[in-house]
Amino acid sequence: MANGLLEGTVVLDLTRVLAGPYCGMLLADMGATVIKIEMVGKGDDSRAYGPFVSGQSCYYMGLNRGKKGCTLNLKTDEGREVFLTMVQKADILIENYRPGTMEKLHLGYEDLKKVNPGLIYGAVSGYGHTGPYSKRAGYDIIGQAAGGLMSTTGWEGGAPTRTGTPMGDVLGGLNLTIGILAALNNKNKTGEGEKVDVALVDSVVSAMQNINMIYLNGGRIPTRIGNRYESTYPYDSFRTSDGDVIIGAGNDKLYATLCDEMGMPELKEDPRFLTVSDRVKNHAALKELIETWTMRSTIDEVADRLNKVGVPSTPINTIDRIVKDPQIAGARKMFPSIRQPGIGDVPTTNNALKFTNHPADPEAPAPSLGQDNDTIFRTYANLSSEQIEHLREKKII
Description:
With 397 residues, this protein is α/β, with parallel strands linked by helices.
């Protein structure tokens, strides 16, 4: 196998729980040496999050695979001195503390760039490092709520709903990764470092593109509309004999093909459904007609039949179906196993990156707490075995 695209890049990972660790996970999957620095005796909060296998958190394992692990008390002078030496040898640092926390430790970007002008400092927080809300704490659900995603998620007349997976955190982690890679590209050309400041709320707002445009350019506040789409129809979920299926006939050609496949060619000339705008306006009537056809078949029968004629369609899969799917689990290898010490082979979720010439699939397990202390501090902090033992006795590592 070829080496990862980020081989030789050293990342200091001070993050915990999800958004920051997700960024570090992606960098590690792409070949970077990611050194996860955790609190002495406790570690990442997510080590206490279930589910557990043999006493180890699967939540933690999935987001921290492929990283090296050490512990370091940054609230001590000796701990900070060790850390600053490590910063000198790093390309990237990532953290997701509340803004101001690193500055209180005298380890903010302005402090660190004095010892490493080329450092790329990536920070992800609830509201970002500027503005009147910057000091507020932020979790995924805060990002989804404040950024508007929850206001448009759910069924008409129902309550605002958090998406089933922590999209605020995932979007924040993705944006932090993108920003870091752009800064790394610039550093490789100019030697200049950068601070990348990403907010969970901003990440959600940015992802709300078409929803924002409806209000900004039309004055209408979008609300919850279930699974259908604001801009075209039929683009929705439909009941079948054994579940729900998605049909995405997003333009006139696909709509005409759908009508023919359903054996309802007259719907192409129905004045209620002639244009995309007509179909959006009369979506309820059209959905009822389509479901008279879909209800006669199973989710797989509908999806297979429509895909054969080019109409986008898929069952709404539950995870038990996804892990057996020949495309997702088979060809795209989205559920590889990693050999985790103390457990054995543990299935995990792959990242979405597929490169032609370089691997990005996870191979190494997540570290146990302080697992690589000796190696990391000898290599990246220039410490002797005696110095490491001294720090261990003082509970600095």
